[in-house]
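JOB MANIFEST
job_type = single_chain_structure
chain_count = 1
residues = 342
[input]
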Amino acid sequence: MKGHRGNPGLKGRLLDKSIDAYILSLETINRLSIRYRIEAFCYLICNAWELLLKAKILEDTQNNHNEIYRGKKIRGERRDSKSLRECLERVFPIQNNPERRNIERIVELRDEAVHLVFTEIPRDVLCLFQACVINYHKRLNNWFMVSLSERVHVGMMSIVYDIQPQYGDLADKRLRRELGLDAAKFLSKYCADIRREFDQFQRAAEFSIGIEYRLVLSKNDDDADIKLSTGPNGRVNTQVIEVPKDPSKTHHFRQIDIKNELNSKISSSKISQFDIQCIEKAYEIRKRLDFFYIGTIKGAFPQYSQVFIDWLLKQYQNDSMFFLKAREKAKKIRSAGKLDIW
């Protein structure tokens, strides 16, 4: 395990157990034969995060054990350690941080799973899980310089989506019957809240990561994510292929192109490249893979997607002062010397 040289003491034990819980959560969620996999994943990933956060608190306080317990130590009495929610408040003090909200949402589902049976889980929830998995690995590496590349294959971090079409809509009567009234009512409200919060975070990948498939009839494999090919004797053979997205097709706009496109659609104000740079800083656009791409070759210029342009236009439609506010927000961030606006 890259960067892992042994972890003596309480902090090390917490970190080792956290990693074990994380790996077990991935093994569980991606094993389709386990009917209890959704609930088990929630318990395990929450446990992994709680232990990781406690190790982080100890790291930040020079191994002050009192910081992960409630109340003062009394001889002969057992102390309760802080809950996952309490650890989240300590490590992520800003309440509307998308990464913190992602974990808090999964904690809500974990708590409900104790009382309800979730035979099926909608796509919105699995997108929440996917972001949580990626966030954990990033934090483990950033905080403790530990990489799981030797223990966890990158493909294992991609949650298996085995959702039938009718299970994408909680209004479907068949799904509601299978879930039961209480579980269906809870999930309907839960998913609606997730979607609303996702939009509030400008669809931040730290909160939720979705997977979209394009189905096309084409002889060119590069045009589709799923290929239906004609086999011998006219029979249709179905195969799923993984096609890396070509940034030259999905992110083919430069800053000047973005500026020209916006000015052609917005006649009431003049948009400059400086506005786009301010929005990049204010909304951390470079963290959004669906918005931004830059090649690894030295001197490569930033590239942007049509999705980013559509998002900009939507923000302006909702608030005509959007670009001006972005300038002010970027100015405050530069003055504070930080990029994390949450």
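[summary]
The chain is about 50% helix and 5% strand.
The CA atoms of residues 197 and 203 lie 8 Å apart.
exit_status = 0
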